[in-house]
Design a protein that fits this description.
CATH architecture of the largest domain: Roll
CATH topology of the largest domain: Thiol Ester Dehydrase, Chain A
Helix content: 25-40%
Number of strands: 20
Strand content: 25-35%
Largest sheet: 6 strands, antiparallel
Radius of gyration: 27 Å
Number of helices: 15
CATH superfamily of the largest domain: Hotdog Thioesterase
Number of domains: 4
Strand order of the largest sheet: 15-16-18-19-20-17
Shape: globular
CATH class of the largest domain: Alpha Beta
């Protein structure tokens, strides 16, 4: 753990109302006043402390971050109109997953964890198994648990909720409550799904450290940071393959990792990760690592966003949604079908939609080969033939010229009969973000 992190942990563990000062932190943790100052400023941004005029900086009780799909057991009981039978003191806990006990005991046992909620009918064997593992119970169908089950629950201080509804209705009510929270949120953001407990390597770590961390976590991709948690790169199993154990990780890492902000939309970010071949992204705030998201996280979240297209989609994403990357030549190629959504009044693809597809193909080609961003300055469009609805097309982007400041890309749209549209795109290079 870096000194910066140690200070943040120290502040977080202080009692609410405690005074926090640069000198106090520097003396207690034996760090420089500059390091202490930067950590206190970040603690203030995180809502751990607050500066009050004429009083000083105090440790405050910050609002706990909460995932939008989180429901407390108390909220679950209200949603299903349940009766609390035991475990009243644990009703503010939030189950991470819901398990329906519609399987044999030997299979059910594998899924039962303390942070889950077991939804079960009048199966006494499943109820007893869940309670032995201290898993809260939601008993459906209006069934009352036996005195033996109630006694076991009270001994282990485990929650039992009894609902008058059957299992299907109960799960529908819970799913609806979670979905309502999703649609109440205007846009699903990266911060809603990112992993906050990030495992990372420091800039002085070696390949041996990577192997140790990979063995401990079961993961193979880790961000590399400096003492202030600034992201320096990303290292994967491919990077360390064949490298000696003592090699410093900064010598082999990818120095241009995919970086996103906590307020970036899931829809846009997931699309970029799929199209550009990224497996993992570092989430930063003010340049500092605060989380991480994987491609799998993004795809699962993207599926959730599809349920709320009125909030989650942009016009570009809708146009591109039916196209996929094709790895078939030295040039970037995407393939897809012209749909009714893209048509003009004459039943052919509109110029605007064709330009959108071609422009994005050029952009992705640049990002995929050089990891560069660009801003389109000029786009020349030549339509040789109309492109009817239902036509399966390919779009190929050829990088003709790439300099430090500008690039020129030739883009062609064609089907099995030949070229339909040609375009020439010039763009100005931007910073890689």
């Amino acid at each position: 753990m870096t000194k910066h992190q140690q200070i943040l942990c120290f502040i977080e563990n202080l009692a609410v109302g405690s005074k926090v000062s640069v000198r106090f932190i520097a003396r207690e943790l034996d760090v420089s006043e500059g390091t202490a100052y930067r950590a206190i400023k970040e603690a203030e941004n995180k809502g751990l402390v607050r500066s009050i005029p004429k009083v000083g900086t105090l440790r405050i009780e910050g609002a706990k971050e909460r995932q939008i799909e989180d429901l407390t057991l108390r909220e679950v009981s209200q949603i299903v109109e349940g009766i609390i039978i035991s475990g009243e003191s644990r009703l503010d806990e939030r189950p991470n997953k819901f398990i329906i006990a519609a399987m044999e005991l030997k299979n059910l046992e594998r899924y039962l964890e303390e942070d889950s909620l077991c939804i079960v009918g009048n199966r006494a064997d499943a109820q007893k198994l869940a309670l032995k593992k201290r898993v809260p119970l939601l008993i459906t169908g209006g069934f009352e648990p036996s005195p033996e089950i109630v006694e076991l629950a009270r001994k282990t201080n485990t929650v039992i909720i009894s609902s008058p509804y059957d299992t299907f209705v109960v799960t529908t009510l819970i799913n609806r409550a979670i979905f309502d929270r999703l649609i109440d949120k205007d846009l699903l953001l990266v911060e809603d799904i990112m992993v906050r407990d990030v495992k990372y390597l420091t800039q002085d770590a070696t390949v041996a450290d990577w192997h140790k961390l990979a063995h401990e976590t079961g993961h193979s991709r880790f961000p590399v940071v400096d003492e202030q948690l600034n992201v320096l790169g990303m290292v994967t199993a491919v990077d360390v393959a064949g490298a000696e154990q003592e090699v410093v990780i900064t010598e082999i890492m990818n120095t241009q990792p995919f970086i996103v902000g906590r307020e970036d939309s899931v829809t846009h970010t997931s699309r970029k990760m799929v199209w550009e071949g990224w497996e993992i992204a570092a989430v930063v705030e003010n340049g500092k690592l605060i989380g991480i998201v994987s491609l799998q996280d993004m795809l699962e979240a993207f599926q959730q966003v599809q349920k709320q297209p009125q909030f989650g989609e942009t016009v570009d994403n809708l146009v591109l949604s039916g196209f996929r990357y094709v790895d078939e030549s030295e040039h970037l190629t995407i393939r897809g079908e012209i749909t009714q959504f893209m048509a003009n009044d004459f039943g052919s693809a509109s110029c605007g939609n064709l330009v959108t597809l071609m422009n994005m193909a050029g952009y992705v080609a640049l990002r995929k080969k050089y990891r560069l961003d660009a801003i389109t300055e000029n786009f020349s469009f030549y339509q040789l033939h109309p492109v009817p609805v239902g036509t399966e097309i390919k779009i190929t982007a050829k990088l003709l010229l790439v300099t430090k400041k500008h690039c020129t890309i030739e883009i062609e749209v064609y089907n099995d009969q030949g070229i339909l549209v040609k375009g020439m795109m010039t763009a100005r290079m931007g910073e890689n973000k």
